[in-house]
Amino acid sequence: MLPPAGRGHIRDPLQGQVNDVKSILIPGRNCWTRTETHDAGVLVDARDYYRELYRAIRKARRSIVITGWQFDSDVTLLRGEDLEEANGGEVRLLPLLDQMCRENPELHVYILAWDFSMLLAMEREWMQNVLFNWTTNERLRFRFDSSSPLYGAHHQKLVVVDGVMAFTGGMDVCDCRWDDRDHPARSTLRCDSGRDPHGPYHDVQTVLTGPAVKPLAELFEARWAHSGGGELHLEPVNRDDLTFEATMPAPPGPVAISRTFGKTILPPQAEVQEIRALYVDAIDAAERFIYIENQYFSSRAIYDALVKRMRAAGRPRLQVMLVLPRQPEALREQIAMGVAQVRLLRALREVASETGHGFAVYGSAAKDEDGSDVFTYIHSKVLIVDDTFMTIGSANTTNRSLGLDSELNLSWEAQAPGDAVSRAIRRVRVSLMAEQAGLAGVAALRPLVAATHMVETLDRLAHDGQHRLRPHPLETVFDQNPLFKPLEPEEFLIDPEESVLDESLFEALHKGDDGLFASGVRLLSRWLVGKSCDTARHSAILPCASVQEEGGTAES
């Protein structure tokens, strides 16, 4: 049984110091491991991330490994004034990687993409196996990973360069993601490879060097082998020239790595729900405020944790602030995820009103030429509590991200309010809130820095209409048209916490080649391939065994 999160003074195994705040991070419960970095930064929005990724690719010597939910071969990494850095050279993702392999015979590139659902086929670049494998250097290898649980997705976003530098967070390297922090209503720079410009888009990534990169590299090795790609050993390159220009520094000191893996039968893989426990424990620990940026909000576990904290007797009143997209991107998500989201948020608002906590949900928008609002699509996955805890990663606040899909988050925790870690977390929070609200200048930011009465402050900004912040309408597509209201469904299968393994349901939803027998054959073949792998080495990465870690037993 994993140890529960404790309250009060808990000794940190890395620093040997007594905490003055409730300790949230416990290896074996809500994180896989906790280790040091040499340097770490936060990259806000794709302009900053794509630029640093371009620089890292250009400097790579031995290996570049990338895993993600989606890729586009021709996504442009540098745009606008940043193009000067390329000096006329290649800036598109796949041609750049191919060029680097041709110029450097020691460089190997491995790309692992989720073998996506057919529901997304029209939204994805076609023939990627051909584009990535048949038109490029032989040392550039691309694979689709289909080893996720039934109806699950591989949603981790990770890049490791030379085994010593890593990027992870909410951003994939693909079309319709690029934007800068100004988020204008219209921008020709958001036009990618001849496509129509997309709307404003916000996301957050992290970059780091040092010992924390090693387990991330091992995570990719295991994912590659698990997909049937064979053994992979990413030996770190001894380098002292890897630098980066982050949007802002990440907190100093150790970083915790947390994961989600859904349960599979073949190949055998136990579930890992470290990120679920991380969110629940962080919410329980909150004493002053909770700030969340996320693409969705439909997690029953997080809803229950917030209700439990709001109803806790004798605890201080909280300020809970969420920044979400005005509505999900695709119609299918608006119908399914959007309805569940609005129901939970309305219920939380009622609980907060009843118990005296501050609670508000916001969107962020720019004014178009005709005076209408153009909302920024929020794709970031950030949770900050009391300026003493911060997690950034790939996990949405949904059931599936906390129990079914593969996810990856990094977290930092202060030892005491006002220490260096706490100050760094506060800088990140204030910067993100200022971006969403459209604020600048010391006087405008002072109320955010003080972190008192923040809901009241943000409410005033959201309702005056003079800045970017907007009250979230908390409405569904069914609310927008009364004729559709009777059609609003009660339950959905699109956001499950666990793999759907019921045979009759699976057969009813998937016929023919996607039926249970065919899927079983495919899973068996993957399992047989996986048997050739070094099980002992990968058991530390994939959740197939239990290992003892400092702080308790970790489901790895």
TrEMBL record:
SMART domains: PLDc. Keywords: Hydrolase, Lipid metabolism, Repeat. Residues 150-177, 374-401 form the PLD phosphodiesterase domain. The keyword Magnesium does not apply. SUPFAM superfamilies: Phospholipase D/nuclease. InterPro entries: PLD-like_dom, PLipase_D/transphosphatidylase, PLipase_D_fam. It comes from the Bacteria. Gene3D superfamilies: Endonuclease Chain A. This is Phospholipase D-like domain-containing protein. The lineage of its organism: Bacteria, Pseudomonadati, Myxococcota, Myxococcia, Myxococcales.
